[in-house]
Structure formats: C-alpha cells, structure tokens
Write a structure and sequence with these properties.
With 122 residues, the protein is mostly beta strands. It has one domain. Helices cover 3% and strands 37% of the residues. The strands form two sheets. Strands 2-1-8-3-4-5 form a six-stranded antiparallel β-sheet. A two-stranded antiparallel ribbon has the order 6-7. The chain is globular. The relative contact order is 0.27.
Length: 122
C-alpha cells in the first residue's frame, strides 16, 4: 500500500509568533508492485504523532522504524510502525524524528476493497 506522511498542516500557525510555517509533504517510497495505477481511490486521512524512532540491532539487517500513534484508532491498534525512509518534494531522502504531528493516509481501490456506506447499515 502506498502511504503519504505529511508534517503538520501548512495552513495552521505553528510558530511562536503565530505565522504559518510551511512543512513539506514527505512520502514513504512504495514497495514495488503494491501501488495501483488507478486514479479513483477511496481515501481517508487520520492525524497522528511520531512517538519514537526504533533503531534496529546493528547485525539484524532490519530497517530503522518510526512508531506513529494514530488518533481515532482503537486503543490496542493505534500504534503503527513504518520504515523510517521518506523522500521529500525535492527527491532528498529524509527521516522522521520523535514528536511531530503527521497525517496517515489510507487508500483503497473502491471496486475491490470497499463497500458503500449504505450497504453496511450506516
């Protein structure tokens, strides 16, 4: 699944003097073969916060991961861990650090993976 992680909201004042600060969108590089080329997707975005960065054992071969707490998720399922490999708008490789707010975007192809809200009874 493709994911987009955005730092903050560029329209929301975040500096001490109240002026908006621009925070560029950061994208998690998608795994090969997992990204649909379809334009029409069902999408939802949830706010979250980077809780911590988990460094692997040096000899494990595992990538560094960022643990993100997703607001609005059930208590036992609100933390997700994603590889801490992102690319900014300029193509530069960057990493998350603990503390910033992020947006967690979930995308699904509607024809295969979703049900109309009226079909669920809600």
């Amino acid at each position: 699944m493709a994911g987009t992680v955005e730092w903050g909201d560029p329209r929301r004042p975040t500096s001490l003097n109240g002026s908006p600060e621009f925070m560029p969108a950061l994208r998690v590089p998608p795994a090969e073969g997992l990204v649909s080329k379809s334009k029409a997707k069902a999408v939802t975005t949830l706010p979250g916060r980077v809780e911590k960065v988990i460094r692997p054992h040096p000899q494990s071969g595992e990538p560094e991961k960022a643990q993100i707490s997703v607001e609005g998720a059930d208590h036992l399922y609100k933390e997700i861990r994603v590889p801490n490999r992102l690319v900014d708008d300029n193509g530069q490789k960057v990493k998350l650090k603990p503390g910033p707010e992020v947006d967690v975007t979930i995308e699904a192809e509607p024809a295969k993976n979703t049900v109309a809200a009226t079909d669920e009874g809600s």
